[in-house]
Amino acid sequence: MTQELSFIHRFEQGISTAAPLLLLHGTGGNENDLLSLGRSLAPERSLLSPRGKVLENGMPRFFRRLAEGVFDEQDVIKRAHELADFIVAAGETYKLPKPIAVGFSNGANIAAAILLLRPDVLSGAILLRAMVPLAKPPQADLAQKPVLIISGASDPIIPASNANLLATMLKEAHGDVQHETLPTGHNLTQNDVTLASTWLNR
Ligand code: MLT
Questions:
Q1: Of 77, 71, 78, 26, nearest to 51 (Cα)?
Q2: Are residues 177 and 170 in contact, defined by beta-carbon separation less than 8 angstroms?
Q3: Tens of each residue's pLDDT in the chain, 202 residues
Q4: Which segments of 17-114 are extended strands (E)?
Q5: I want to staple 101 with a disulfide (CB 3.0 to 4.6 A). Which of 89, 106, 125, 132 is the partner?
Q6: Is the CB of residue 15 less than 8 Å from the CB of residue 6?
């Protein structure tokens, strides 16, 4: 565990100089959760994995919510900028190119917020079970950054209409968006790993 930067995080140096993966955990997770997913997706890339700073009944998250699926948008904005600043600082410390975010659930939602508010800090994103983080985001220009969204057809937390709206928002912001829906719920499956690694190594 390294703590000098503004987020508690794990950093694993890879042997490749390709864009590292920025791993963003779901509610109740931490900086260790997605390391094995990152390793399976990209065995040679560096991995940077921060822990969300917001606690909800002791469970780490990346921003506050008022209820499940109802976000404190002022906090989303503040936390997205805070995490974007960390990404820049960690890039300088570890001498990294801009990362590709790999976020699950709450981690996917903060990654989507960063795409809409600070697109320059990422080189792309894999959003696993993501939803719209901000109802009326400012106009963003993703400049054809690649984004993969993987939704679950029977996700009890995220209605299909919400995931579709996120895909539309990111396309309208000029993202190069691929949106896939798997026959599953909120949890990740082997199909997510297969789809994401195919997309990453395409
Ligand atoms: C969120 O709060 O970001 C979403 O409801 C997903 C979750 O973390 O449960």
A1: 26
A2: yes
A3: 555 799 999 999 999 999 999 999 999 999 999 999 999 999 999 999 999 999 999 999 999 999 999 999 999 999 999 999 999 999 999 999 999 999 999 999 999 999 999 999 999 999 999 999 999 999 999 999 999 999 999 999 999 999 999 999 999 999 999 999 999 999 999 999 999 999 999 9
A4: 21-24, 47-50, 54-56, 59-61, 65-67, 70-71, 100-104
A5: 125
A6: no
Distance separating alpha carbons of residues 92 and 95, to the nearest angstrom: 5
Q: Count CA atoms closer than 13 A to 3's CA, side-chain side.
A: 2
Distance in angstroms (rounded) separating the CA atoms of residues 76 and 114: 9
How long, in residues, is the chain?
202
Cα-to-centroid distance, 17 and ligand 1 (Å): 32
Structure tokens at 85: 């600043």
Pairing of strands 176-182, 124-128: unpaired
Q: Which of 105, 114, 129, 155 has most ligand 1 atoms within 8 Å of CB, for mutation?
A: 105
